[in-house]
Amino acid sequence: MVKRLSLVCLLGIVGLSFQPLYAQQKLTANQAHSHNDYKQQIPLLTAYYAGMGSIEADIFYRDGELFVAHERSEIKPGRTLQKLYLDPLAALYKENGNHPYPDAKKRLQLVIDIKEDHEHALSKLIEMVKAYGSLFDWQQNPDAIKLVISGDVPAADHFNDYAEIISFDGRPDKTYNAAQLARIAMISQDLAHYTVWNGKGTPTPPDLQKLTAVVAKVHQMGKPFRFWNTKDSPNTWKELERIGVDWIGTDHPDALKSFYQNRPKLEYTSPKAYVPYQPNYKSDGAPKKAKNVILLIGDGMGLAQIQAGLSANFGLSNLVNLKHIGFSRTEAANSDFTDSAAGATAMATGHKTNNRYISLDAQGRKLTRIPDTLARFGIKSGIISSGDITDATPAAFYAQQIERTMSKEIAADLQNSHVDILVGSNRKSFTANTDAGLMDKLAQKGYSYRSTLDEFATAKTGKQLVLLADSATRKVLDGRGNMLQTSLQKTIQLLAANPKGFFIMAEGAQIDHGGHANDLPFAVTEQQDFDRLVGEALKFADQDGETLVIVTADHETGGLSLLDASYQKGMVRGNFSTDDHTNIMVPVFAYGPGAKAFMGVYPNNTIFDKIIKAYQLK
To answer: Can you tell me which residues form the catalytic site (predicted)?
Structure first.
């Protein structure tokens, strides 16, 4: 028997670093196999620049040459193995300082699938590659490009008839002795040999057992494994990795490279779960007047983001505990695709408007915002954001501007608003405003300026302008902490003293940022932070008994789809179809008095009317 050490060393030369027990590894493009590579518009280079670790060329021996083709009828003058593969690889190898790739850690094998007449083809191949010195000689050069023979290969007991510069592609149903096994670089088999699975969803348990068994068998032999005839899709790639294969075949090297390259931004596993609040439902759906309303807006939060947060929190969530659920249609007045300005304006004023407009109607006329409407009845309001407080969503509740980026003009509009508490970042739009006296004017309006949450915590009464450092609203992954929950708790404490009631809008601003960045860990951790905010609101609603909590989004961002998830592992993997907003309906969750009114499907601007109706104002 060949000692395990020698087998592991051999595998290292092949270009794979396998652990003896073959623990499941996260694959990269360098563990990808460019199937029928010669059919690419640019043979070799498409796969090479995608970082493929294995590249396949089919060959025929004709008139003393090795031609690259899948069928005899496809043989064409000039399309030789030497011209399309060997010479270009030699040039690249030299350019990389005698490495297959610029990254010396990356390996490369050239799989040569002999279609017929292996005796003449192998003799010609061995003769040819000797001219390249140590480029293909793995015995002399640990950085060599491995030559692996597949297709019409000699019988195993004839492997040693051929120079050791070449290795072979084995089959799992064949028995090899130690000497023969030492000549095998990998073992492959047709996926259809074990299953009819078409790459969608997951294989059936019996088929999965067959697939994992053959991979385990090959790993016990100390060899890497590859299935051929596999569906070329992200779902297939992740399922094959889960099964434990070592080479993923593809006809789309660039797509597979992107799949692996973007992996850190497309999958997330939570280190631990947070425990949601369990509502008591005593006032939930009660047909009585709501004294207070808390509107929570997860900017960019669609159903996929909610499901991602749920999966990553081991199947636990505050949102899934809510019973009254509807859907909001988010179209703007001038487009079926809304931005945050039009989306928030619809909820803040009850009117659809154009994208980028802040609480102006589609003709540019000023609209009455919900804090202003409620102020006439003695109801006080607070606006909170885990981001820029002059950004579109919070701005729609206190400003009126024709362009959402007019940050300083938006800040100045607070003078004309009935908002009592404003909490968020982008301090400079207020303190360095073009109106140099803005802060003094706001002070004259009764606002106490606070620059930190600790200062805000000391407030006892009165209007509060809490302008935090931008670092205080950095993303959760960078350490923002409980900024949202702390802000909501204090705002509730101050406004609950008002006998007429209150309205609070709190925004989870950065779920949207994660969607725009196509960054799933970013989006998921922001959604989970927002979900914890939901728990705080529900807790108060139960204590108070007169508070309606509404949770929704202004739109969905990123076109997120989920490819894999595990409640047991707290893991989720996804993919984004855009870096912009989509017009997918967003959910509306409601809890407390009047919650039933939020069930059904309706335009987003009717949320305003439902809120006003919930107060039963007279």
So the answer is: 340
